[in-house]
Write a structure and sequence with these properties.
2 domains
């Protein structure tokens, strides 16, 4: 490796480290102060950088926040795809295992997940660069494809009735989104309420009974 290549590689590594430094700082502040209250200046101070350095990596606060959501979508896609590729479980068993997978995803980072759902339900995506919007949409589509493949497997095995597997995957996404946001709204009134796991388990169990081939 030549000197120029080595310097370029070191520069790339340094940029990745700096980018992660900014994202970690933003995540901490979004958690403690909330997205609306946190400013680029706050994030820069938390990351021990200048505001100008933040703008070298991110267009604005929305772009920075979208990058955190993209990381989370990547993790979610890996979990769904890993479940689909399991060669031991049947499609019925995978649907049952999905209860725990969804709850694990929620527990992995509930703040980012909740805000991700809010972002998708609002006009937040319109504020992002076309590149970032495309990345989020593609990763979200990947999550849904992995879910639909589980249902397609069940249909091919004769375990599930013949419905559109993409629509069934959408239903899981709707259940997950609705349950998380509804339970979160109840916890805002009473923090001791925590029925997300039971709600997800029951909803997917009912869905599983409804699509099971007789």
């Amino acid at each position: 490796m030549g000197i120029a290549e080595r310097r370029e590689r070191e520069k790339d590594i340094q940029q990745k480290i700096r980018r992660k430094q900014i994202l970690d700082a933003a995540k901490r502040l979004f958690y403690t102060k909330g997205f609306s209250a946190a400013t680029i200046e706050d994030i820069a101070q938390e990351a021990e950088l200048s505001p100008a350095a933040i703008y070298l990596y991110f267009k604005n606060k929305d772009d920075l926040y979208a990058s955190l959501n993209l990381q989370f979508l990547e993790y979610m896609a890996e979990r769904f795809e890993g479940l689909y590729r399991d060669t031991v479980l049947s499609a019925e068993e995978k649907l049952d295992a999905l209860k725990d997978v969804l709850y694990d995803i929620f527990k992995f980072d509930p703040i980012i997940l909740i805000n991700l759902f809010h972002l998708q339900a609002s006009d937040g995506l319109k504020k992002l660069s076309p590149e970032r919007t495309s990345q989020i949409n593609k990763m979200g589509a990947k999550c849904l494809r992995s879910l639909s493949k589980i249902f397609n497997q069940g249909i091919e095995e004769g375990r599930f009735v013949k419905h559109n597997p993409i629509a069934l995957g959408d239903m899981i996404w709707i259940i997950f989104t609705g349950a998380v946001l509804w339970e979160e709204s109840k916890r805002m009134i009473n923090p001791r309420k925590d029925y997300l796991k039971q709600t997800l388990d029951l909803a997917i169990e009912i869905m599983g009974r409804g699509i099971k081939a007789t």
